[in-house]
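quick one, two chains, predict together pls
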Amino acid sequence: MSTEEKKIPHKIYLDENEIPRQWYNVRADMKNKPAPLLNPGTLEPMGYEDLRPVFCDELIKQELDNDTRFFDIPEEIVDYYKTYRPSPLGRAYNLEKALGTPAHIYYKFEGNNTSGSHKLNSAITQAYYAKLQGLKGVTTETGAGQWGTALSMACAYFGLDCKVFMVKVSYEQKPFRREVMRTYGASVTPSPSTETNIGKKILAEHPGTTGSLGCAISEAVEVATSNDGYRYVLGSVLNQVLLHQSVIGLETKTALDKYGITADIIIGCAGGGSNLGGLISPFVGQKLRGEQDYRIIAVEPKSCPSFTRGKYAYDFCDTGMVCPLAKMYTLGSGFIPSPNHAGGLRYHGMSPILSQLYDDGIIEATSVEQTAVFEAAELFAKTEGILPAPESSHAIRTAIDEALKCKENGEAKNIVFGLTGTGYFDMVAYEKYNDGAMSDYIPTDEDIAKSLAGLPNQPE
Amino acid sequence: MSTEEKKIPHKIYLDENEIPRQWYNVRADMKNKPAPLLNPGTLEPMGYEDLRPVFCDELIKQELDNDTRFFDIPEEIVDYYKTYRPSPLGRAYNLEKALGTPAHIYYKFEGNNTSGSHKLNSAITQAYYAKLQGLKGVTTETGAGQWGTALSMACAYFGLDCKVFMVKVSYEQKPFRREVMRTYGASVTPSPSTETNIGKKILAEHPGTTGSLGCAISEAVEVATSNDGYRYVLGSVLNQVLLHQSVIGLETKTALDKYGITADIIIGCAGGGSNLGGLISPFVGQKLRGEQDYRIIAVEPKSCPSFTRGKYAYDFCDTGMVCPLAKMYTLGSGFIPSPNHAGGLRYHGMSPILSQLYDDGIIEATSVEQTAVFEAAELFAKTEGILPAPESSHAIRTAIDEALKCKENGEAKNIVFGLTGTGYFDMVAYEKYNDGAMSDYIPTDEDIAKSLAGLPNQPE
């Protein structure tokens, strides 16, 4: 906590040659490994060959590897990282002043690229391995649009075809996100669509549906597995994604170390877990190895509280039930989150790695209401000059709450949070907030019990 | 031209303490000074007292000062600059590779802040001096929205009231820009409005009008001059704005010098001239002092060609004719630019400083068609990962054209251009381009002759 304030700039930029050359695999340091993916029919663990029809070969190896501590980052990916990394670690001097807190607030800002979020870190990686394997293209789903945008940028760079199923409600409400993807050459289809069997089935059963992430995943997987030269890629939840996203945490740690700062609290928003998992990985590693203790807080919306009100169990990852089962904190794959503008935090489940860490008490979790989140977003925008994404603003809310506790207790703690992205494509949400028309829907216990009743049979 | 390629990173970030501490006033080095503003009634030069009802005191001093070479930047402004400056100087390695050019292409990227453009550099300065003078607030106009956004951020920071008149067509087509301003606490009124006499007059004469920048300026000036504690501020054209924007050029020069790079060609888009003037100021200074020669190119849209087809004459700055007359390259204040998506480049006139430099042959100018501009934008987005603003893409187009000439001639020239901003709020334009529905309207000679016929009487 003894930092020489004068020396810390508003934004810490590392040099280009300080971009990590290896991803860190936190599973290598976990005593309790994340549970394996299961075949939904046989409930047997899925191996390399089982997953090959769906995922790229090299990515499956990363997915299944619980032991290798570091993976070399291919030169071609480092080259692309150089177009937008290292990302800055900001010191929120103005926010601290506005709060009157003795705490020092830092944020790792991943929004300074056209995709507007951290998703590009994994998108460029997955596109690279698809290209390396000689594939024609990849399919994916996108909800809020950050992942689809990132993937379309990555595919344009490597000359791959990119087919995105976009949750219909987002497709209609976020035409500009869609146009960014089209500008990068991706084809974008509203989901559910008539291009897939699962899409047709869902449309027949629910004619007026505006779609869901789970449904879009099913469609993307179906197209990948029924077309030669295509594979499915996913922007969150999976172990491989957390591996790629470890660049966030590694850079954060390098920047902190450079200025002799030791974090006391590390905070990130959690939807599927890609950002949080990436940010905290090296810190969790230290904690698991007994080198350093940290408070690590996952923040989720009260409208979709997987950690704080969900169950740790095997569940379907998608609505169509074509994906493997994953053991995770889940609200049930049939859970319909109440309206919330943080589209990236509306997934019913949570990364198996983070689920295991939470179950083991290595990380904690909290949930926050939407209006309070936008209040925090507005204060951050006005003081620090960055208009944050609604998702990221969950972390801001909790960072502010912790900074205010520090004020009460007179503690100059170092608080680090992940600012995953910008809110430029979320102005409909801000408009609602500016108009005072924002609501805080919270699911009832009955809602959650009902969707949890749909969990599949659990293995022995 | 002898640069050691290996050592130049993809993005050159200066340290926080390398932010300029003084603005550079290029007028001090001009033999032919820019012509003074005139009273539209008497055709007499306007002095300090004449301008006080409209502009902030300190800013008028800057406006009228043709001799002071450097102005100290107040500490409070430097503090704010630190939240988003120094801005990076990018090396477009991937674009060079895609073009197969031996040229080295650099871009000064001003889009990495929430306003999405360089406008914040002057906005925070003008807000600071308004606050210093004890004013309640400021009024302004905005077309494309970048300036209004920047000013609303600046006013939120200093606790000033901010009243923005937004050209009606932009207000309707860019609701998200409007929401960003509202999030920062600004009030945003579509122009022409019934809140001003000039607005009512224009609405009575042209009931279906969608507004113009010239009209919005008149409204903003009227509100500022008829309310106690308010002044009018402007984001381009004026000498003071070019002074503030000199931080762009000063940082660019520091970054180039650091790596031993000498620019051969410097390129910027030109609407009112704020970005171009800021970017080139220190380089023009060297050229005027005979220290170093540069090719300096202003790029404008073929649909609004002030430099390349306009006349160097005194003209009205606004439609309502309430502003002083300025001597500039102009198409006539009645010029109605044909539809073009680069809203920031649709002003009929041009900065008096740049106009004088162009007239003296210090800088050159070119004009480009819209479709070719978006082709350049798409290539830049795909290779360099940044989705550029339509305005900035004019500079990209010309930078690419020059790089292709280098390819033909086998010349490894250093090309530097200003990437003024991002295109996140311009996706309607990209959608048109993606749909192949973009048009290239070019005014006829008759169109231009007709609007130039409306020039005011010229002084002796």
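Residues 11-20+85-116+240-452 of chain A form a domain with the Rossmann fold fold (CATH 3.40.50.1100).
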